[in-house]
Amino acid sequence: MDLKDEVYLYNHARWESLAKSDALFARPYLDLNKESARDYLGLDRMGIKDELTGKNVLCLASGGGQQSAAFALLGANVSVLDISHTQLERDKAAAEHYGVDVNVFQGDMRDLSCFSNQSFDVVWQPYSLTFVPDSRVVFHEISRIIKKGGFYHLMCANPFFSGLSHEDWNGSGYILKNPYKDETLTSYPDQDWVYDRLKSPEKIQEPREYTQSLSRIMNSLIKEQFVLAYFSEIKSNYPGDLPGSWGHFTDIAPPWLEFIWYYHPNFLTGGK
C-alpha cells in the first residue's frame, strides 16, 4: 500500500487545517477527572465495567487530546495514532496538563505496522472509518495488534445516511442522493459548529468520506474473528428544531452507529 496515496494526502491536509483552526475535535479536554472520564467515554453505558489500570489502549485516528486524556486518567497505558502532527501535539499538551504519559504515533489507520502483534487490550476508534475507502484493511490491521479477549470500540457513519446533511431537506424529507454501495465517495459542508470560519487561517477542504456498508463492516469484523457485544444507533435530541436544521436532521434518523467488538479467535469453531 502506498501510504502517501491521494487518500492519505487529502486527509492529512484537511486534518492539519482543522487542528490549526481549533476545530471542535482538536480541542483538548482539560477539565476531566476519573469519574467524568468514564462518563465521557460512555463505558458504563456500553456495559464496560473493566478496570483499565495498566491496560494498553490504542486511540486510533483519535488525535486531539480528548479520548487519550480520558483513558490516561483511568490508569491505562495510552498510545495514539493519528494522521495529523498538530492533532498529536494536542494529545501531548493534554497529557502534560494531567501529568500523565501518552505515546503518540503519526500515521495512517490502514497501516499499523509500528505496533507489534497482540499489543493492545483496547482499540478505541471514534468517527474516522469513513475517511478511507476500504474498512477491511483497517479491521485486518486491528485484528493483528489486539490481544485475545480485547475489545474494539468503533463509532462510524450510519451508511444509509452517509453523505446527507440538513441541507438535503426538500420541503418534505431528507432525500437520499448516493447509491448504497461500498466505497461511494461522498462529501458535505462542515457544520458551523465544527470550526470558526472567521478565525480559520486558511480555507479548509470539505470532508471526503467513503460509504462503508453495514454488511461489509459486520461481516468483515466477524471474518477477523471479532464477536459483537454492543450496538447502538446514535441520534441527537433537539425537540422543536425546524425541518432543514442540523438539529432536526439528526433527530429524524440516527446518523451514527456505535459498536463494541471483542476479539475471540476461533470462537465460532469452539476454540479449535
UniProtKB/TrEMBL annotation:
<dbReference type="InterPro" id="IPR029063">
    <property type="entry name" value="SAM-dependent_MTases_sf"/>
</dbReference>
<feature type="domain" description="Methyltransferase type 11">
    <location>
        <begin position="58"/>
        <end position="152"/>
    </location>
</feature>
<dbReference type="InterPro" id="IPR013216">
    <property type="entry name" value="Methyltransf_11"/>
</dbReference>
<dbReference type="GO" id="GO:0008757">
    <property type="term" value="F:S-adenosylmethionine-dependent methyltransferase activity"/>
</dbReference>
<protein>
    <recommendedName>
        <fullName>Methyltransferase type 11 domain-containing protein</fullName>
    </recommendedName>
</protein>
<dbReference type="Pfam" id="PF08241">
    <property type="entry name" value="Methyltransf_11"/>
</dbReference>
